[in-house]
Amino acid sequence: MTIEWVSYAVKSPLVASVGHTKLMPPPPSSEEPCLVINSKSGHARTNTSWVIGRLLRDYESWMDSAVRAKINSRLDKRWQHLQRNATDEAIPRPRQTGLCVSVYEPSKTKKAGEPAHDLVYWSGIATILLQLVIAALALFKSNDSSTFLITISGTYLALTTGSLSQWKAEKWACRRKSPNPYILTGGNGAQHAIMILGNGHGLHLEDLTVRTAYPSLDLQTRFYLAITSLLWVVLLLPIRSLRRKSWPLLVIAGMGTIQNVFATGVKRAPSALGVHLDFVEVVGDVQVMDALIRLEAKYPNAGRSLLPTFFPGGLRAEEMRMWSGKKM
Predict the structure, then answer these.
(1) 3-class DSSP state for residue 101?
(2) H or E segment at 57?
(3) Res 210: pLDDT
(4) Spatial separation of the C-alpha atoms in residues 48 and 35, rounded to whole Å
(5) Does residue 275 or residue 7 have the better pLDDT?
(6) Which of 86, 91, 262, 289 has its CA at 20 to 30 Å from residue 235's CA atom?
């Protein structure tokens, strides 16, 4: 239980039950934009999925070690080039170079859309147990029944709201067993692009990008959310009346706040988001054009599908001739 749950439950679910009828929020505006490109058709969509946004946001924390090694080698290569052509010897090592395309394929043994339990999940369980222990101690040692009842009630409301099937329906609102390959990237100037091969075991990421296509709340869920929001308001009333011996409740609420901050900011692996990926290889070069040519040679139409994104102004004459010689 945490104070943030009270604020959230009174505002977001209540608004969802009578307003925009969606529980899942869009990606925060503070996160970098993300494009989802079908490398088979070349169609690109701007992402509005929270899951896909987190995949790209946290990528540098879960990318394969081979990707990191490739980037470091290309950074060193560019650094050496800059040092050779500069009169000033104090050239700092560049932080970005060219393009690095990491190739993954959906897991054939793990079901897409079923998240794995990670540290965030288990920290939530541990926090709830510790909160209940503190509330129980307050009850038996200080006869503080108010703290115990508030903690039990708040925990129950939080768990039941979080266990609604609507969350899963919206978070993975897409078809399964996709045969299409997709590329995720932040757009022109991005260091990374993530290519997910279509092997018939992954999610249709194009479906997931369209937030307006998410299933709306049914009448039963709307009613439940409205009642839950009312119960959270009722739960605030005894809290206001607590004058003495309220430190256990403050500790309990503080623990919940810390866990919320941790869960919001920590980097998470894709498996925790229901996207299970196996690393295949990494393709990259110091020059973006060279990286796309290498990618096209290994995965036909993949490099070509990225040309409008990384070269929005069009290609030069020699580049057009180079690509015209490749199979469409």
Answers:
(1) strand
(2) helix 50-57
(3) 83
(4) 9
(5) 275
(6) 262
